[in-house]
Every structure is written in structure tokens, then in C-alpha cells.
Amino acid sequence: MQMDGKSIVAAILHDVIEDTASSKEEVAKEFGEDVAELVDGVSKIGQIEFSSEEEAQAENFRKMLLAMSRDIRVILIKLADRLHNMRTIDAMPRDKQRRIARETLEIYAPIANRLGVRKWAYELERLVFATLYPLRYAVLKQTMKQRQGNRKAIVSKVGDAIVNRLESSGIAGDVTGREKHLYSIYRKMKEKTLTFDEIYDVYAFRITVDTVDTCYRVLGILHSLYKPIPGRFKDYIAIPKANGYQSLHTIVFGPYGLSLEIQIRTEEMHRVADVGVAAHWLYKSGAEGEGKVQQQALQWLKDLLDIQQKAGNSSEFLEHLKVDLFPDEVYVFTPNGEIKKLPRGSTTVDFAYDVHTGVGDRCIGAKVNYKLVPLRTQLKNGDHVEIITSEWGRPTPSWLNYVVTSRARAHIRSFLKSQKNEESCLLGERLLDKAVTVLGFDLGQIEEKQKKKLLKKLQIKKWPLLLEEIGIGNRVADIVARQLVSDISGKTKKGKDTGLAITGTEGVVVTFGKCCHPIPGDPVLGYLSAGRGVVVHTADCPNLGKFQKHPERWLDVHWEDTLKGVFQVAIQVESRNEQGALAAIAAAISDMDANIDKVTFAERDGNFSALNIILEVSDRVHLAKIMRKIRTQEFVSRISRVKG
Prior knowledge:
Layout: H1 5-12, H2 16-19, H3 24-31, H4 33-42, H5 53-70, H6 73-87, H7 94-114, H8 118-132, H9 134-168, E1 174-179, H10 182-192, E2 203-209, H11 212-225, E3 227-228, E4 234-235, E5 248-253, E6 259-266, H12 267-275, H13 279-282, H14 292-310, H15 314-324, E7 329-333, E8 339-343, H16 348-355, H17 357-361, E9 363-368, E10 371-373, E11 385-389, H18 406-438, H19 448-458, H20 463-471, H21 477-485, E12 500-502, E13 510-512, E14 524-529, E15 533-538, E16 554-559, E17 567-576, H22 581-591, E18 595-604, E19 608-617, H23 620-631, E20 636-641
Parallel strand pairs: 2-6, 12-16, 13-15
Antiparallel strand pairs: 1-2, 3-5, 4-5, 5-6, 7-8, 9-10, 9-11, 14-15, 14-16, 17-19, 17-20, 18-19
Helix pairs in contact: 1-4, 3-4, 4-5, 4-6, 5-14, 5-15, 6-7, 6-8, 7-8, 8-9, 14-15, 14-18, 15-18, 16-18, 18-20, 18-21
């Protein structure tokens, strides 16, 4: 790769800090600060005890990423180290071989590809394939060898035809034909369930010319020589890949019914295609050397650092990293014509977070190609996307069900976590205040020294953290209240228990049981569930028996008088099978200003159907009106509310 001297020195010393008694300071003294930083970045964290191998691996990647963001050479040395490990993997026990090979396939080969070091990415994939599936690898390699003679003649003929056509057009270019890599052939066979004989584009051609203008001229010449396959042309020169890769890709109908993949690029593009970010050390030519590839790589690392800070722990970050390393990209346009690259399957919410975190957090709607669409809409190549924001817009947990980019997922989780902490703290304060009042005291009048004494006893650093623990159900408010007031007087006084008022706006720390779907007007009970806060159930919920073993977790709750909002409730409608029955039921529900959240068939035979419908209603009175309206339909034989 013709890397610089410091990289070579750091590569030779890459295991010194990890495997010997030498320290980073000693390395810095002997070889300079830059080399010491590179070696330290590549070294694993051997001093810390981890609860699992996965956590250790994740923490190592987190550390390596921080070092990479300061100096991209860290990852190049790490990739070289891993490539050498894979080349000598036969010397290791079989279980270790499998573990290292899987880690290489999941992390290192995609990183090499993401940074544009395709030469190494291909070799890593081939070595992983040979390690994980030795028999499949051997069979496929043998099959390729057997067919080689016949195919070589075809490749030679096609190559000569392309060279002759270019020469007759006065264009000088280098034409090379190559076999596709074994692993990419295997992956295609597996993904598309094809046999080896059904894969025609086993060979690919590369044409290298002098200028970008010539690339497009060559494309025209090729399409006049062989017919292009519709929809199989990609222009990575106008819109480069995220790793800086540029080329024109086209698949054409060649002779003998073969489809041929042809790549057209300049010499400079070819250098970048082979060694990616390392191309900077191959040609040091001022501004060009510090080109787009390095900038894109560093931008990707900055984005990953942002995700790393938002991730709750190392394992969550590693999960985000894996998602980010496998982007099959789509290209979409912002309202002012800027091109955005996103992984395939990305939604409008992913796009919003790609534009800016603030846009994602406040997004309430989207337009795709000037039409309003749901936020879960998946984007396609060429879509024109506009995000609608509002000051009151906030991320919701449902977004996590359909976003695909690690950036969006990390920011949504981070927002929900901080929101949950805030809400837990407020709920914890309400629960503790109620529990202290029952004991005849006023929480606001309890002295700070008494609170500090309790915090010390419970080994909790701050008062808000204790309130948070109570709010999410990890601690019971009644027990904490008794501990808090036990020293104030010899015995506690009994106050009036008013119960906890449910307002409907508590957010993620007060939830409603999916088993019974309580709505305002129902007699209700609260259950303090560890990690979830208060779960509200109807007083006659069939599942209450499960919780009888923990009476200390039961709470008296009641609905707030001024409560507003919509609440889910389940009903079952039994009706005759008539054309338009479902549409009529839906229309009746809509007439009563209610929304349908979900419809499923519980039973169905030749004459009757039982429909389970989940509605959004404001209270019991609203539900009663809806049920009366549905009952007026002549084909409806029975309607009831479902619990349990």
C-alpha cells in the first residue's frame, strides 16, 4: 500500500503495548508520539474486566473508533493485522477459527469496504468463506476451475472485441477481464437461490481511461457494441458511493447469451477503488491528496462518534455499527436539490435525521414527490423528500419499529431515554408524596439532612435518582416513605390516602394494560412494574390474579376529572357475512369521531364472522355511543367489549 514510515513502524509494533511490559510512554520516547498513539489505538483493552466476550469486543471497537477519528491510519493497521490473522487462521483451534471468521465478516470486511479498501475486503471475505464453509468453498473453487478453459476463451474474445471497437473510435484504454470473487458468487447463489450454471455474470470487465469525459464516451461505444440490460446501469461518477468509489457500471447482453458486467473508470478512480482512504499516501499532490475519499471517511467516523455518544452501552453501539456497515444505498433529493445517500429501506424519518438531529426530533409529517405520505414510507431512488416539522413534534417509540439508519435509531433511543428519566422522576415524586402524606407528613417540609441520610443508607448519589427509581418501579414508594420518616418521630401518623390521579399525559412511565385496555370511567387499579413504571388495569381484568403475590406493588389510582385524550379499547363484533359489512362498521365508527387502530378476524365460517376491533375513544360514554351505533346495523348480531 506504500504507507508512510510512521504507519510501518506502528504496524511492526502493533502488539507491543498489548502483549509485552512496554508502556505507551516508552513507545513514545523511542519512536515518537504519533507512533505511540497509533499503537495504542490498535491495542485492545486488556486491563478491564468485562461481563461477556461481546461486551469486551464492543468496548474495543468503541476505543478503536475514537483513535480512528483522530488518525485514519489506526484502522488500516488494524485491517492489515486482521488480514494476516485470517491468512494464518489454520493454526488455531476450530472454535476460535469460527469466532474470528464471523467477527471478520460482520465488522472488519465491511469496514474495509466502507473505507474503500476493496482489495483487502475481497481477500477477507474469501478467507472467511474458506474458514466457515470449507466444503462449499472447495466445491465452488473446483467448479470454477473446471469451467475456466471454456470461459477464458469467451473472455478473450469479448476483451478483443472491446479493444478493437475502442481503437477504431480513437480511444486508448486498458481493458481487463477477471473472474468474480468466489464469495460474491456464493452470496448471489444463496440470496437468489440459483445454481452455479444459472449465474452468467461470473466474469467482469474493467476499462480504465484517462478522463471522466472519455468514460462516458466509452459507455456509448459499449452500448452500440452490446445491448444494455434495462435498469442495470449505475453512474457512480456523478453520485459516488459513501466510501468515495467512482465508476460507471453497466450490464450488457454479450455473445453466447452471457450477461457481462463492465466497469469504466479513470486511473485515479481505479487507485481509490483498490485502496480507498490509503490512496492519500499513494499520491501526495496537495489538495487532491487530501481529497473527497478522506473527507468522506472522516465524516463517516464523526457520524459514528455521534452515535457512540448517544448509545446506551457498548453492545448497543456495536449493534448500530453493524447496521451502518451494510448500506445498500438509495439516493434521494432534498427540496433544494441536494443529494442524500441512505441505506436501502430507509424511511422519511431516517431522511429527517440525516438532514439534522433537530429536524428528526421535531418531524411530524413528510412529502415525497410533493405528496403527503406516512412517516413510515420507504424511500426509492430519485425521490424528492420534504420534511414537515413543528415545535411540538417529538420522537415516539413506534419510530424504532421502522427506522433503519443507526443515526436515527441512536438519537430516538437517546431522546426517549432522557424523556423517560424526566417523566420517571416526576411520577416518582408524585408517588412518594402520596405515600408520605398517607403517613401523615408533608414531603415538601422534610429536611435535606433527612433526605441525605436516606440516600446514604440506600447508596444512591442524588435525590432525583431515587425519585427515578420509584417512578420506573424499581423501588416501592410506601417502603421508601417509611424509611424517610422513621427517624422524624417514634411512630408514623395515618393520613388520608387519596390515590394517584391518572391524567393521560404521563408519557412512557404510566402505561395501560394491553390485556384489558382501561378507559376513563372504568374502575382501575395500578400495578408498579419494575422497569416500566405504573401499569393501569381495569378492576375486573382477568390477569390481576397473576399479581396477587406482590400486594406491596398495588396502587390506588383514579382518573383525573379534567382528563383529555384518546385511549385504546377492544371490542368484538359478530355479524353475518354480507358484502360491505366491514365497510359499514368502519363508517359507523368514523361517524362517531373515533379511529380504528387494528382489525382482526377472531372466527369466520360460511355465515358469520367475529371481528376483533381496537378503537381509540375518549371515555366510557364515547364507547357506549359507538357500540349503540354499530348495533343499529341489521347484519350485526352481537357486540361486546373484550378484556383479557
